[in-house]
Write a structure and sequence with these properties.
The chain has 224 residues and is of the alpha+beta class. It has 2 domains: 53 residues; 155 residues, Glucose Permease (Domain IIA) (Distorted Sandwich), CATH 2.70.70. It is built from 3 helices and 16 strands. The longest helix is centred in the N-terminal third of the chain and has 21 residues. It is elongated and about 70 Å long.
């Protein structure tokens, strides 16, 4: 059975109230066309909201090994590139890194999951713009949360970003700096179309390709 994520229950309640108001107006109007239209809108809002905030169970694959990086989001891989770190974050400035970006459409599951077992050692919320999420400039310009996790060894590090898109205007997370986390567990969501970036050391081997469809908590993105 697929449940509704607690990260979205406030929105679900508001949408159901709005839908109920539309349904009541539809019942008491004398115009058949308006009745049908309002009823259709109410039903669409209810069904889409339940679908969007679905939260299916996921299992970490049996081949997963400590240090591997799981996908933190459902969606399509839109970018794989080598970069140089030019920010003050989990990695030293100037270090050669690798980035994998995943685009989430409004039809994807939007609950995010931890990519690496370890400890949160970097956490930063950045206010920004709302470029469309598939625009690669969104990584540095959009509203986002940046989360850095260190694993058991020095090589096991990942920085990942929850990036708001043109439609998404709400980022949710329930972890703090210093939190112990487990690969595959839920930690938050981005409400509506959005993007997630994973940034890792270049000694990681990326196992996905551009246009691959990945699943949060199940797809191994990269391995040491």
């Amino acid at each position: 059975m697929i449940s509704i994520t607690p990260y979205g229950k406030d929105v679900v309640v508001k949408v159901f109230i709005a839908g109920a108001i539309l349904a009541l107006i539809a019942v008491f109007t004398d115009n058949l066309i308006i009745t049908v239209l309002l009823s259709a809108v109410a039903v669409f809002l209810w069904l889409f909201t339940l679908y969007f905030f679905r939260d299916p169970e996921r299992r970490v694959p049996s081949v997963y090994r400590q240090g591997d990086l799981l996908s933190p989001a459902d969606g399509k891989v839109v970018l794989i590139q080598d970069i140089t770190n030019n920010e003050d974050n989990l990695f030293p400035a100037g270090e050669k890194l690798r980035q994998v970006s995943i685009f989430l459409s409004p039809l994807n599951v939007h609950v995010n999951r931890i990519p690496l077992t370890g400890k949160v050692e970097y956490l930063k919320y950045v206010k920004g713009e709302y470029l469309v999420a598939f625009d690669h400039k969104a990584s540095e310009r959009n509203e986002r949360t940046e989360i850095g996790i260190s694993g058991i060894t020095d090589k096991e590090k990942v920085l990942f970003k929850q990036i708001a898109g043109f439609v998404a205007r709400r980022i949710v997370y329930d972890i703090d700096n210093g939190s112990d986390v487990i690969a595959g567990e839920r930690f938050g969501m981005i409400k509506f179309g959005s993007r997630v970036d994973l940034i890792m050391r270049d000694d990681y081997k990326v196992r996905v390709k551009i246009n691959d469809i990945v699943t949060a908590g199940e797809t191994i993105i990269a391995e040491l």
